Amino acid sequence: MSRPSNVHGPNPSLERYVIPNLRNACRILKELKGHPGGLKAADLARSLGIPVTTTMRITATLQIEGLVQKNDGRYGLGPVLIHLGNAALAGTDIRRLALPLLQKLTLDVDETSHLAIPCNERSLIIAVQDSLHPLRAASPAGFLTDLHSSSTGKIFLSYLHNGQLGEIEGLRAPYKHTAHTLTRRADLEREIELTRRRGYSIDNEECHIGVRCVAAPIFSSDGVVVAAIGITAAGVRLAETRIPEVAATVRSAAAEASQLLGYSAQQ
Questions:
Q1: Pick from 74, 213, 72, 92: nearest CA to 141
Q2: How far is CA 223 from the centre of its chain?
Q3: What region does 73 belong to: left with phi over 0, alpha with psi -120 to 50, or beta?
Q4: pLDDT tens for residues 41-59?
Q5: Is 209 exposed, middle or buried (0-12, 13-18, 19+ CB in 10 A)?
Q6: Considering Cα of 160, then 162, then 165, then 167, what sign does the dihedral take?
Q7: Which of 247, 248, 235, 246 is nearest to 207 (CA)?
Q8: How far apart are CA 227 and CA 257, in angstroms?
Q9: CB count in 10 Å sphere of residue 167
Q10: Orientation of helix 20-33 relative to helix 41-48, angle to 10°
Q11: Torsion angle of the four alpha carbons 101, 120, 48, 35, in this order, in degrees rounded to the nearest 10
Q12: Contact at 8 Å (CB) between 247 and 200?
C-alpha cells in the first residue's frame, strides 16, 4: 500500500503544485496547536520565518473562516477545526472497523483501549474506549504522541519506520518526558528489535509517571502496518508481571483487525 502524503509527510512529486501562502497557513495552524494560550502575529512570524504583513493577512483570512480566533491580540485555533477534526475521525474507515474491537478489548482487560495511526512521524490517536475506572490516564482522540515514548508510537517506529531512526531523530529529537523515557540511539534500537521480536510494545511510564501502555500492530492486506491498537492503565493496576497476559489480549485484537483488513499471517 502506498503511503498517502497527507498522513506521512510531504511527497516530493507534489512540490511543484504547492501554493506557498496556503502552506504557510497550514504551518500557522500547526504552530498554534502547541500554544493553547495563543500567539501574536509577530510571534508567529518570527517563529515560522514568515513576514509579519503576510502573517497578518493569513491569520485574518483564517479568522474569517473560523479556523483561528483572536483574543487580546493573540491568535488561537478556531472552533471550526473541532467540526473538521470530528468529521475526519468519523470518516476514517479503520476507525469504524476497530470501534467494536476497542469495546471488546476494554471489556476483556478492564482498561481503556485506543486506536492510533501514523501521522507526520508521530502517532495520532483516533479513537478511545474508556474503562469504567474512575482513575483514567488515557489521552483523548486527536492527541499526537511521540514515537519513541508511546506504545503505539513504538509500533510505528519498529514496523513502519524501521531503519529510519536517524532521519526521525533529525526531524524531532527524542524528548525525555520522564526518567524512564528512552532517548539514546542504542536504547531505542534495542527497543525496536525487542518490539518486533515479541510482536507488541510497552510504554513503561515513559510518557507519564504511573501510567503503562501496551500496543500491537494492525496490518493491511499487503502486510504494511497502518495502525496500532493498545491499552492504557495506571501502573498500580498494570503491574509489569501482568503485561505479557494483557499483551496477548491486545495482540489478539490487533490480529482480528488485521484480518478484517484482509491480512493473512501466512503471507
A1: 92
A2: 20
A3: left
A4: 999 999 999 999 999 999 9
A5: exposed
A6: negative
A7: 235
A8: 9
A9: 10
A10: 110
A11: 20
A12: yes
Give backbone dihedrals phi and psi of 53, rounded to 5 degrees, phi first.
-65, -40
Count the residues in the chain. 267
b (16+ CB within 10 A) / e for 45-80: beeeebeeeebbebbeebeeeebbbbeeebbebbee
HSE-CB of 70 using CA atoms within 13 angstroms: 12
Name residue 181's amino acid.
T
pTM over 0.70: no
What's the burial of 106, exposed, middle or buried (CB within 10 Å: 0-12/13-18/19+)?
buried
The cell for 7 is 498522513
Side chain identity at residue 85, one-letter code:
G
Q: Give residue for cell 468519523.
A: 90
pLDDT, tens digit, for every residue of 57-111? 999 999 998 899 999 999 999 888 876 776 665 545 788 888 999 999 999 999 9
First vs last Cα of the chain: how many Å apart?
15
